[in-house]
Write a structure and sequence with these properties.
The complex is a heterodimer of chains A (263) and B (629).
Chain A: E1 7-16, E2 19-29, E3 34-38, H1 45-52, E4 60-65, E5 68-69, H2 75-81, E6 83-85, H3 98-104, H4 114-119, H5 122-140, H6 160-173, E7 178-182, H7 190-205, E8 210-214, H8 218-224, E9 227-232, E10 235-240, H9 242-247, H10 249-259
Parallel strand pairs in A: 3-8, 3-9, 6-7, 7-8
Antiparallel strand pairs in A: 1-2, 1-4, 4-5, 9-10
Helix pairs in contact in A: 3-5, 3-6, 5-6
Chain B: H1 7-10, E1 20-21, H2 30-49, H3 52-56, E2 60-62, E3 66-67, H4 68-84, E4 95-96, H5 100-126, H6 138-144, H7 150-173, H8 176-194, H9 196-205, H10 209-215, H11 224-258, H12 273-288, H13 295-320, H14 329-343, H15 356-378, H16 383-402, H17 407-410, E5 422-424, E6 428-430, H18 435-457, H19 460-470, H20 472-477, H21 482-508, H22 518-531, H23 536-550, H24 566-580, H25 589-592, H26 597-617
Parallel strand pairs in B: 1-4
Antiparallel strand pairs in B: 2-3, 5-6
Classes of the chains: A alpha/beta (263), B mainly alpha (629).
């Protein structure tokens, strides 16, 4: 590769007390890729997301995004650089409306000051209009599920699948380049999960996001990922295409041995 | 109305079960009755020994019949008598017709509860319990005996227990619609009695003293005929309103069926024309009314206004940003002392004798700086730790003001006196002895605070605050700069709080450290929680009810008799609120929006149906017209 990868991680260690959540992890994502991170429970997948999004500080190692180091940056600064994430255990702003959820996540893309709001300046009105329009646009990505009367409903009344969709919409509203999706289809039925898989493909093909996702549902991983990285005990034990990885004896032993029956 | 084919009729199953059964009157849950009766007993004895009946006895609700003192011993059996007969009606569960059984259950709990009072009456004539229970007094015994003999009192309390408990249980018998009417009537009569001074004041302002004279026995509550008229008028009003609302609900439902429209998002800090009209009317009333009010009421309203200001400021910190600040009084103190030092000729070391408005700007600036100063170390913490640290800062400010070290500037416990009034561009001077002008000053700043809260809530920073309140780490991961947003919340809250302090200084003319005790922080927080966190209207309502009726930490309210028991009642109200209505008196719109308007209409329609069914199975005593929503 001539140009450096979009996200490059070298020698990453994360230690919680005596526990090595991640040890000596190397990882790279090229622009426009969909990379799946899989592994058994406790393998360090979510810790990996937490480190990239800045919520956990690494013990050792380097993280570069578009050639610049992310180390020491607060999560909001990392979001401003263009990395957005969703959460495994859906963490929406439950008492805010659906629309407000996607409006607030445009915080780092907007500039209005308190004084603009107080004086109701034209800059304030213009920007509010833009934020609202952009929020509706992002919600519209999921068909009519999050639009219309849903705009003004609090996120807490949404169904589980719709909460997952809103999580993705909220991350999209931060206008990221790289999306980190933590188990996007968990808890969805097969139809919903197939539909969302297709939408994740669209996110890359039409919206141009680069995507890293953690997923336990192997059919989703098989259908959309360009590459798969397998974590076990905080170490990358295999990488490659789905076909390569699923044939790896080490992976089968660690993880797919059980899940492969279902495929 | 009897459309069985309607899909919505199917869901009325939870309120109109197919199998409606009657139970025998003696088919009681005796264990439960004993338990509730015992709790009621403890409650009644507690109220009696707390001294409330004696202190409140001076205040009458209905002239010769009922005093607030007796009411304090009557309400609990009534409420418990009602509560003991309450059952959760679930869909698919067998429901029973309410009737004699509930009345008996109420009566039994009432008798059991008041057995406590009976034992107390007999007990205190034989044993001296004054030593540990200082609020016990001979007057209490007289009151409990109805100024007759011990045994008369002992027996009559049992009778009263039976009667009030049975009345409470009987509320189940009369059906939902009549129950609501009865409760509204009780509320209307007691509010009319409590508002005596305000209404008399208003009547004088409009030169219709005759009305007030007829309504109220002088300083002694409503006259009996007036109470009857208020009750009658309330019944008529309730029926008329409910008929109108039911009709409106039916109309909305049929309109929705005719043309199911998709409602888009129309919000974003803008008001609908109808709400705008209501808002304009309220503003006009607020501007005009003080002209017709007397000194006492204006003074009372000014105090309420000062607390509205404080509560709106704290609401930004606690209600919007979710930072539990227990030391908010610090900003109140900074505002008050800045103005005192800068304007008073009596300020010991530094006395520039500035005009109030100039001092206000410096006070705002200082409060903002103190907000930053307190906020900076505090915002790194979360939850309990944060609350404890703010509590500490609140006390530090008070102790600094009191200290010898700074007594050269702040005069220690002697405080600063001779603070001049507010001179408004040489036109007029606002002073404490002119409550009306103070009220207008307070209203002006309340308007500013309301505007600021309203604009900020629907802006970038307001959304960031709410996101932080909901989940701070996620807010940060979604790009919100939590450190600066939280600091902004502190600074904004501090500046709004300093307004209140600045006005207090000019209003009272003197200022002392003890006015800024920790209890002030707690009361402001209770106002915010009680009214409805995060909601401007809720905060105003909370201040009006708590400060207006019960009184603030250093200010009397409408019920001056409550002064000694204020904190106790605050506590009881807060506990009840948290259990029954944790979102506050007027919940934030956000919560109300949980139901889409279509669902709200359906809800109203269903309730009207349920009321009809309820009335059909329970022939009511009071018969209203038309279905109620």
């Amino acid at each position: 590769m001539s140009s450096p990868p979009m996200l490059e991680i070298a020698g990453l260690h994360v230690v919680f007390g005596g526990l090595h959540a991640l040890s000596d992890l190397d990882f790279a994502v090229e622009e426009g890729e969909i990379v799946a991170v899989i592994g058994p429970n406790g393998a360090g997948k979510t810790t990996f997301f937490n480190v990239v999004s800045g919520m956990v500080k690494p013990t050792q190692g380097q993280i570069y995004f578009e050639g610049r180091s992310l180390l020491g940056l607060d999560p909001n600064k990392i979001t401003a650089r263009g990395i957005a994430r969703t959460f495994q255990n859906v963490r929406l702003f439950a008492n805010m409306t659906v629309l407000e959820n996607v409006m607030v996540s445009q915080h780092c893309r907007t500039r209005q000051r308190m004084l603009d709001a107080l004086l109701y300046t034209s800059r304030f009105r213009r920007e509010e209009e833009q934020v609202r329009a952009r929020g509706k646009e992002v919600l519209g990505f999921f068909g009519t599920r999050l639009t219309g009367y849903r705009f003004d409903q609090p996120a807490s009344v949404l169904s589980y699948a719709n909460r997952r969709r809103l999580e993705i919409a909220r991350a999209m509203a931060t206008s990221p380049k790289l999306l980190l999706l933590d188990e996007p289809v968990a808890g969805m039925n097969p139809v919903e999960s197939a539909e969302l898989t297709q939408l994740i493909g669209k996110l890359r093909d039409e919206m141009g996001y680069t995507i890293v996702l953690i997923e336990h549902d192997m059919s989703v991983v098989r259908d959309i990922s360009d590459r798969v990285v397998v974590l076990d005990h905080g170490e990358a034990i295999a990488r490659g295409t789905y076909a390569e990885v699923s044939a790896d004896p080490q992976v089968i032993e660690a993880y797919l041995g059980r899940a492969a029956d279902g495929n | 109305m009897t459309a069985v084919a309607d899909p919505m009729a199917a869901s009325t199953g939870d309120t109109v079960p197919e199998t409606v059964r009657r139970r025998r009157v003696l088919d009681q849950n005796w264990r439960e009755l004993l338990k509730v009766g015992a709790i009621l007993m403890v409650g009644q004895v507690f109220i009696a020994l707390s001294g409330m009946p004696v202190s409140f006895d001076r205040r009458l609700i209905i002239d010769p019949i009922l005093s607030l003192g007796y009411l304090s011993l009557l309400w609990l059996p009534l409420v418990v008598g009602y509560a003991v007969g309450r059952e959760q009606a679930l869909e698919g569960m067998m429901a029973y017709t309410k009737g004699g059984r509930e009345v008996l259950a109420g009566a039994i709990t009432g008798v059991l509860g008041n057995l406590g009072l009976t034992l107390l009456v007999v007990g205190i004539t034989h044993f001296d319990i004054r030593d540990p229970l200082v609020n016990w007094s001979p007057q209490l015994l007289e009151l409990l005996e109805f100024e007759q003999s011990v045994w008369f009192g002992a027996l009559i309390w049992l009778g009263i227990g039976a009667a009030t408990g049975a009345a409470g249980g009987g509320l189940h018998w009369v059906g939902a619609r009549n129950r609501r009417t009865v409760i509204t009537v009780i509320a209307a009569v007691s509010s009319a009695a409590v508002l005596e001074s305000v209404i008399t004041d208003l009547a004088q302002g409009f030169h219709i003293e005759a009305v007030a004279n007829w309504l109220y026995a002088p300083k002694r509550g409503l006259t009996s005929p007036a109470a009857a008229v208020v009750a009658g008028a309330t019944i008529l009003a309730v029926n008329a309103i409910s008929a109108l609302r039911a009709r409106a609900a039916h109309r909305l439902v049929s309109a929705a069926e005719a043309s199911p429209t998709e409602s888009g998002s129309t919000r974003g800090g803008r008001l609908s024309p109808r709400r705008l009209a209501g808002f304009a009317l309220t503003v006009a009333a607020v501007i005009v009314l003080p002209l017709f009010l007397g000194r006492l009421t204006n003074e009372l309203l000014a105090n309420v206004g000062l607390f509205i200001l404080l509560a709106l400021g704290l609401n930004i910190i606690v209600g919007l940003a979710g930072i539990l600040d227990l030391g908010y009084v610090a900003f109140f103190a900074v505002g008050g002392y800045s103005v005192a030092v800068l304007t008073s000729p009596g300020s010991p070391r530094f006395s520039p004798e500035m005009p109030w408005i100039g001092a206000l700007f410096i006070a705002m600036l200082l409060a903002g700086l103190v907000g930053l100063f307190i906020g900076a170390p505090v915002i790194r913490m979360r939850g309990d730790y944060l609350a404890v640290v703010t509590l500490g800062f609140g006390e530090i400010i008070r102790i600094l003001l009191l200290s010898d070290w700074l007594s050269g500037t702040f005069n220690g416990a002697q405080g600063i006196i001779n603070i001049p009034g507010v001179e408004i561009f040489g036109l007029t001077t606002v002073r404490g002895f002119e409550p009306r002008s103070v009220l207008y000053l307070v209203l002006f700043f309340c308007a500013i605070a309301i505007y600021v809260s309203w604009r900020l809530e629907n802006s970038r920073i307001g959304r960031a605050w709410m996101a932080i309140r909901e989940d701070e780490s996620v807010a940060e991961a979604m790009g919100v700069d939590t450190v600066s947003a939280k600091l902004m919340a502190f600074v904004t809250g501090a500046v709004l709080g300093s307004f209140s302090g600045a006005i207090l200084s000019a209003k009272v003319g003197s200022i002392f450290p003890h006015s800024f005790a920790i209890i002030v922080s707690i009361v402001i927080l209770v106002v915010v929680i009680f009214g409805g966190m995060g909601n401007i209207a809720g905060v105003i309502a909370g201040a009006a009810v708590l400060i207006g009726v019960l009184g603030g930490p250093n200010q009397p309210g409408l019920l001056q008799e409550f002064a000694e028991f204020k904190i106790l009642i605050y506590g009881a109200l807060l506990v009840w609120m948290m259990l029954q209505r944790s979102e506050g008196l007027i919940p934030s719109v956000r919560r109300a929006r949980e139901l889409h308007t279509d669902e709200l209409n359906q809800d109203a329609w269903l309730r009207a149906q349920a009321d009809e069914a309820d009335d059909a199975s329970n022939p009511g005593v009071l018969d209203g017209q038309g279905p109620r929503p």
